[in-house]
Specification:
The chain is an alpha/beta fold. Helix content is 26%, strand content 22%. InterPro entries: Amdntrnsf_FN0238.
Length: 318
């Protein structure tokens, strides 16, 4: 049986959006977004739905358990990115996060939390969302990239990442915070950490050149390398193609790295070969969704919780 890893969840949550389109409210600080014609809304929504359902099928074929939720509302354009409003953690812990853009705050869904409590062992839910009223934001595993093995929370400074709240999260969940400044090719702060780096069990992808402070860059590279993890450096162009927005998952036959087809095409052959010495790459084709400024990692909320024993139809644990 394949060896499991704290870093690679075998179950995930994904959302099939009802009315997908690039979010005008988030475009102010998300340089990865692409404008869409105003009359293209219906086509974009249908294309995004098809992309998610195809991606879900591909993940399930690899043995990843996917809990797929439909989003019935038409006022949540970024609902397809659930990893920003909640995260799950070993030991039965769940965090709910405050969101920077007001029209993203309505993405939080009690039914998803209820499913987690029903299907998995949830000990507590720490809800930080009330801190939106104080102007404090921390957009989940978009704002933070978590190393569950070494217990480090990497976070690029942005409007969506409060250092105060990051410290509070790290105290509650026992992570060491590593904060840094990161900039895209145009010199603008990168809005989410998970577009510039991905941490797996044996390999990490990171756009080191986005970190201008050389001393801090070296510190982060050295910290990522602990535990004999191989660090693969990504260029600004590769970051722009979402090569850093990937996630390691546990499949039926071993660990795999889920990333978009666009991201995989941006990788040099030597980089792909280095990754594939550790795990399989699973490309997922989501070009419409990527117009919203996020890619595969953003569409997947990993479940790092212990499943409950099998339930009978009457709900009794066996």
């Amino acid at each position: 049986m394949p060896q499991s890893s704290l870093q690679a969840p075998s179950a995930v949550i994904m959302i099939c959006p009802h009315r997908f389109h690039p979010n005008a409210e988030t475009a102010r600080d998300n340089g990865f977004q692409t404008d869409a014609p105003a009359d293209a809304a219906e086509n974009l929504a249908a294309q995004a739905q098809a992309e998610i359902r195809t991606a879900v099928q591909a993940l399930r074929e690899e043995g990843v358990q996917v809990h797929l939720f439909d989003d019935p509302r038409d006022d949540r354009p970024d609902a397809v990115f659930p990893n920003n409003w909640f995260s799950t953690h070993p030991g039965g812990h769940v965090a709910v996060y405050p969101m920077y853009s007001s029209n993203r705050r309505i993405e939080r869904r009690p039914d998803i939390l209820d499913m987690l409590k029903h299907r998995y062992r949830v000990q507590d839910i720490i809800d930080y969302s009330g801190l939106e009223q104080d102007g404090l934001f921390l957009e989940g595993t978009g704002a933070m990239v978590l190393d569950h093995v070494e217990r480090v929370a990497y976070a690029a400074r942005s409007k969506r990442t409060s250092e105060v709240l990051l410290e509070r999260f790290c105290t509650h969940f026992n992570y060491e915070p590593m904060v840094f400044d990161a900039y895209d090719a145009a010199g603008l702060p990168i809005y989410h950490t998970n577009v510039l780096m991905c941490i797996g069990t044996d390999v990490a992808l990171i756009g080191l050149e986005t970190i201008r402070d050389v001393a801090r860059r070296d510190e982060i590279r050295d910290r990522l390398s602990q535990g004999d993890r191989e660090v693969i450096d990504l260029s600004q162009d590769q970051i722009a193609d979402f090569a850093g927005n990937a996630i390691e998952l546990q499949g039926r036959d071993g660990r795999l790295l889920a990333m978009s087809s666009r991201a995989m095409a941006a990788m040099a052959p030597a980089q792909r070969q280095r990754i594939e010495t550790h795990l399989k790459i699973l490309p997922l084709d989501i070009p419409t969704i990527e117009m919203a400024g996020g890619s595969v990692r953003c569409t997947i909320a990993g479940i790092h919780l212990s499943p409950r024993p099998h339930l009978t139809p009457e709900g009794e644990a066996q």
